[in-house]
Amino acid sequence: MQDLELTQNRSTAISLTGLTDFAVVIYFIGLVASKAILAIGMGVLTVTAIVHVIKNKETHIKSASLNSFLFPVLIFLVTLLSGLNSTDLTEWGAFVTKKLPFLVLPMVFYTLRIHFSKRYRTYLAGFTIIVSLVSLGVLANYLMNFESVNAAIGRGSAIATPVDHTEFSLYVAYAALVSLFIYLEPKKVIALGTQSTFLLLAIFLIIFLHILTVRSGLVVFYLSAILLLGMHFLRKKKYGVIAGLLAAFFIIPLLSINFIPSLKKKMDYVQWDFKQYRQDKGLTYSDSERIYSLKAGWEIFKEQPLLGIGIGDLKAACKQYYQQFHNKDLDHFPHNQYLFCLAATGIMGLIAYMVAILGPVLHFRRRMDAYLASLILIILLAGMAENPMERTFSIGFYLFFVLASICYLTTTWEQQKS
Fold first, then answer.
1. pLDDT digit string, tens, across residues 373-414
2. Contact (CB, 8 A) for 137 and 163
């Protein structure tokens, strides 16, 4: 009887493991393909967590373990509470719906934390491979339409990517950093390739990132790589390697601007766009519009500095600003996550946002790995020029890897403690 029960438990564990892996594959495909597929991936993961609770009859919650999973929930709560000072409840409801993963996924990952801790590096490697394959397709399409795409870049367009080019560039930057750190971890076993495979992937992704010409991706990669690789080799007292890296990170961008046509076209456009801004003609151009959006965000913030104007009313306030000061029918949100928070939810909302993002860093400060550090740096730096936590793909990307990291670090700590 006991043998039969043991066999049934083992069979259930195997089926749940397979279902979780299947959900993660759908999730990753959704990140690079469509919001609908991403939502299905999140849904299958949620169902898997519910089945896990029912099958294993888990009712006890370890509060010490759960605490670290609650940081992302703050972002959902701030959005929810912002409805109190929003008059446009339809717009507020849309934001609440978009932020639901911040409430649901932490509970899902907490429930499946043992599985994610075991699969942590496999999922990191798998994501890197998927992003590399998609990047290869994007590169092939670019090369087949070389002249027309470069001409479009010179007019402010971007290379076509399966999802928003800015969000995709963050994937590429993260995948490049993950590849580098997998290569630098010779004692870790990666099921999906050899160490040198990931070095080659890192080189390809770094080259591709320059061809893609999305400045957000380039900036977050370079700054994160300089800081994290510098700290890695500093701990090993390899000062010569640090000097070489600094030289490379200075020389490579200079060479890239001169020898990569798409990047050269992009830099030419940036200079032209900035001239339009200085002549007050750039309101509808890519870079100038960003500057105007920052001004709009700052002016709206000053109206209600403590609690913000209300996330439901932010679009209407932006539209009013553009009509009043520029006589344009635009409603662009501030291209800066921190200004977005200040304008929508005030100083209190920004504090909550920073606690949500930096909380895992402080919580795991003595045992944090390079993968979590890379992710947090990317999100913090991207927030200077974008609002990633207001975009579906970026939300899905951030939540998966921050929660997977928390699963791994929490479970590892529990095992060491026991």
1. 999 999 999 999 899 999 999 999 999 999 999 999 988 766
2. no
First to last CA, the chain: 31
Backbone angles phi and psi of 156, in degrees to 5: 100, 0
The answer to whether 388 and 382 have CB atoms below 8 angstroms apart is yes
Q: Structure tokens of 225?
A: 């790589």
Residue type, 299: E
Sign of CA dihedral 200, 179, 32, 112: positive
Chain-centroid distance of CA 105 in Å reads 15
Helix (H) or strand (E) holding 64: helix 63-66
DSSP H stretches of helix in 364-391: 370-382
Per-residue tokens: 57: 């009859």
Range among 16-20, 271-275, 324-328 with highest mean pLDDT value: 16-20
Q: Which two tokens stand for residue 400?
A: 């998966």
The span from the CA of 192 to the CA of 34, in Å, is 25
Does 1 score more than 90 pLDDT? Answer: no
